[in-house]
Amino acid sequence: MNDMDQTTEPDHQSLPQADEPSMMDNMEDLFGEAADDLGLGAAPLSLTQAPLSTPVLLRLADLQRSGCCTKLAWSNTGSIACISDDGLKITFHSTLRNPRKEQYELSKPSKHPLEAPDGRHFVHIQFSGFGPDLAAVDSYAGIHIYSMAGAIGRMQPVTVDPAVVDGGSSVLDTLVGMYWLPLSPAEVKVPYFTQANKNDGTWTTNMRGGRNEGVSHHVEGKGALFYVTASHKLCLLYQNHVNAWQSVSIELEALDTTQTLLSHAAIGPEGHQLVLATHDRAHCLRTYSISINWNPTEQHAGNMRFISVAPALHIGHLSAVEGIAPQQTDTSRISHLAVVPSPPQHVQDPSNTTICAVFTQAPVPLDPSQGFDTLSVLARWTIDSTTPALHESFAKLKQNGSIPVQPAIPVLRRQLDVPANKLVLGLSCLYLNTILALTASDGTIEFRSRTSENWDILHQVPNHSTVVKSLPQS
Residue ranges of region Disordered (predicted)? Predict the structure, then answer.
């Protein structure tokens, strides 16, 4: 599982599935004609959507307020971390197979919960991609790092830069985005399976070795993460030779007014750099490139040799889009921002890195004046480049030398929106960034093909098919 940490409590008042019979189908069966022809003229009869539960609405409010509000996180080690309702502790669970019921069940909480610092409560948790490390953010924007201590569900604190642990005391310090760098070599050299082919009734596939090109800590086995605050501060938190976590930061933009405060931020790999996308209260989408000069030095302590790093951050401004919104509705608000990386080269997929903003709308219960239904829209921008062309008038001038080649500039190209008739609460990239998993308030998970133009839903292939490219199709 790839960090599907946006999972929330399912909405028990979910809508009927598409293949379930509706009231209209029953009328047609009884009377032999469509319900809208039963002397009612041409006026259509629509069924009102079931109201959303209070926990789902509260969860949606959290997502629309900030990009760092995960209360339930899954680790690739099999551990499940959960912030308690009062935010004062983090408990750990695991899934157990019940052979009698032939299903998985959630274990009881482990006996080693994590307690919040005095006077604070936890507001966000996020496992590293590999899984042994956990970052927890408290109500004062303090960041705490915990590492697995010999057993799943047992974490111990590690030493972190005191300024990072202390956090701040104003809205300017609110965290709006966090990203763990992949751990080298475990998350850089990744095996993968090719598509499955059916020959003479037998399915065959091959496992090959791949490499995810990207940015990771200069020293193998050391962890690092980025986080972004509402005041446009980008900070790198990294392990050094003594395993203590140190930090370095840089300002992205000058903070002019409260409208330029960030609400969401997302980071993802783009070749040998990183791409950062931010969204502010004025609905402006900005993109940046991030590169790291680790400045490694070899040091000695007695008979020991180790590498120490002193990283420096470099930011490049890529592009900006003012007033972003869905193409077909203006009543929704952004609830999720993600950088969907392009697949690795060995996948042979031409998809560009894409910025995806999930917009959601949900009517408030007991407010009949709101005439819209619950829905989500995935707005997309691909990161591309274009070469500026000189005006045709320059061609009439006498040329005394070669015409200089104009450098390509990055641009954001808007793609068609992807609608979803449910409340999307999370988005994750799976299987070498070729599949997207959308978690919804009704407890369902929808798999979509990132390689298709409109991110089509992946369906199970017919029985006569001889090719399967992903697990959801099998």
Answer: 1-24
For 207, the 3-state DSSP assignment is strand
Kindly report, residue by residue over 227-277, the tens digit of the pLDDT. 999 999 999 999 998 778 999 999 999 988 999 999 999 999 998 899 999
Place of tokens 């395993």: 243
pLDDT one-digit tens code per residue, 6-42: 444 434 333 344 444 444 444 444 334 444 444 444 4
Secondary structure of residue 97 in the 3-state scheme = strand
Clarify whether residues 178 and 161 are in a common domain. Answer: no
**Is residue 437 domain-shared with residue 354, that is, in the same domain?**
yes
Instruction: Flag whether 16 is in a domain.
Output: no
Which CA distances in Å does 20 have to 24, 25, 295, 374? 11, 10, 61, 19
Find all residues with CB under 8 Å of 73, minimum gap 6, and list them: 3, 5, 80, 81, 82, 125, 126, 127, 134
The Cα-based distances of 10 to 6, 18, 183 in angstroms read: 12, 18, 32
Which domain covers residue 433, as residue numbers?
A: 327-387+405-474
What are the backbone dihedrals phi and psi of residue 64, each rounded to the nearest 5 degrees, phi first? -75, -20
- Model confidence pLDDT, tens digit, residues 62-85: 999 999 999 999 998 889 999 999
Q: Answer yes or no: is 56 within a domain.
A: no
State the pLDDT at residue 459.
81
Q: What is the 3-state secondary structure (H, E, C) of 349-400?
A: CCCCCEEEEEEEECCCCCCCCCCCCCEEEEEEEEEEEECCCCCHHHHHCCCC
Amino acid at residue number 470: S
| 181, 182, 262, 278, 374 from 371: Cα distances, Å | 44, 45, 30, 31, 10
C-alpha 193/C-alpha 196 separation (Å) is 8
Largest CA distance in the chain: 94
Q: Which of 324, 343, 378 is the last residue of a domain?
A: 324
Picking from 269, 299, 324, the residue at the C-terminal end of a domain is 324
Cross-strand pairs, 286: 278, 320
Q: Is the pLDDT of residue 125 over 90?
A: yes
Angle, vertex CA 258, rays to CA 256 and CA 263, nearest 5: 110
58, part of any domain: no
* 157 lies in the same domain as 180: no
Are 351 and 436 members of one domain?
yes
Instruction: Give the pLDDT score at 34.
Output: 41
